[in-house]
Amino acid sequence: MDFGLNFFPVFTPDHKPASQFYREAIALSQIAEEYGFEHVQTVEHYGTPYGGYSPDPVTLLSAIAARTKTIRVASGAVIPAFTHPLQLASKLAMLDNISDGRLDVGFGRAWLPQEFEWLGVSIDESRRRFSEGIEACRRLWSEEDVVFEGEFHSFGPVTLSPRPVQQSGPPVFVASASSPESCAAAGKAGYHLQVVPTIVSHETVVEMLAAYRKAWVEAGHAKGAARIQLKYNCYLSEDRDEALRRGEEMENNHVELMSEAAAGWLRTSSDQYKGYDKLVDKAREYDFGKALSAGKILAGNPDDVIGQLDASRASYGDDLCISIQVNSGYTEYRDAERSLRLFAEKVAPLFKPRER
């Protein structure tokens, strides 16, 4: 197992200034690098307290890259549907240069209806825009005099400037919410994978990863080269009761703000997002204890979290990178730093890193 650090801001402006959250993210990233973490990543969302404090992952990741030397910086994820591919490929190539070739690019479809409305993009086009955007970025990173003719964008001939540091461009990850079919498509294409076990059942995650690994092998990609990131919220303390109390408070805040952001599905429907109309009802049924028992979060003292990771490894495989969130912005910085240091010193050493 490898380990990374994930920043998904979920807080209201009265709780913490945005500038403070960014400073905390940079400081925690530097600590994670000191402990040998594999990556740091952040999301792309707009206009609500649910992720909206990270409208441009490239900006925050550039600040982190400028203050670190070895840790990889990753988008988790950027949204091709919301940006012209020439712009997106260019700014990601710029970040690859700033980080001296430490960039991993996770691409996602987005799922909040109001974001599509605000940006003037049809939600029913999300999958096609997603696929087209990845194709265009990859060509721009690896080819010269690119002429691109897509459904949504046509341009060229153009040679990207700056060129990425990494040959043929940064590694590509696909963020998959719940679909084994999308995981299989990612594996067939040779893309790496980002999954959030919190939002789906244990059985679905097993099915998603099995479909991905099977498609990867059948497509003839190099054995052992696939990279799979699983993202967990993590609440850690030497005092189990304190960690669980704090974890429940943080999770309830997360679910409340997610429910408010997801309320757009009460007036929206799309055959590209089956079942999303039930998200608000599912969120209202959330129970911290049940989520903890089901292995959807990491919480407790170091021994508890070691056991939870052992269970995750037994269920999902040992070829994983676990990306933990210790600071959602709702968290006090001292608690986030303490969780990170405890994890790095007492949990991570018991899990052998992947061979790279």
Structural overview:
The chain is of the alpha/beta class and 356 residues long. The chain has one domain: Luciferase-like domain (TIM Barrel), CATH 3.20.20.30. The protein contains twelve helices and eleven strands. The strands form two sheets. The protein has an eight-stranded parallel beta barrel with strand order 1-2-3-4-7-8-9-11, surrounded by seven helices. A two-stranded antiparallel ribbon has the order 5-6. The longest helix is centred in the C-terminal third of the chain and has 23 residues. The termini are close together. It is an enzyme of class 1 (oxidoreductase). Keywords: Oxidoreductase.
Task: Offer a quick outline of the entry.
With 356 residues, this protein is α/β, with parallel strands linked by helices. Helices cover 44% and strands 16% of the residues.
Q: Fraction of residues in helices?
A: 40-55%
Q: Give the amount of beta strand, in percent.
A: 15-25%
Q: Helix count?
A: 12
Q: How far apart, in Å, are the first and last alpha carbons?
A: 11 Å
- Radius of gyration, CA atoms, in whole angstroms: 19 Å
What is the CATH T-level topology? TIM Barrel
CATH superfamily: Luciferase-like domain
The shape, in one word, is globular
CATH class: Alpha Beta
The secondary-structure class comes to alpha/beta
As residue ranges, the low-confidence spans are none
The largest β sheet comes out as: 8 strands, parallel, barrel
What's the total count of β strands? 11
Query: Total domains, how many?
Result: 1
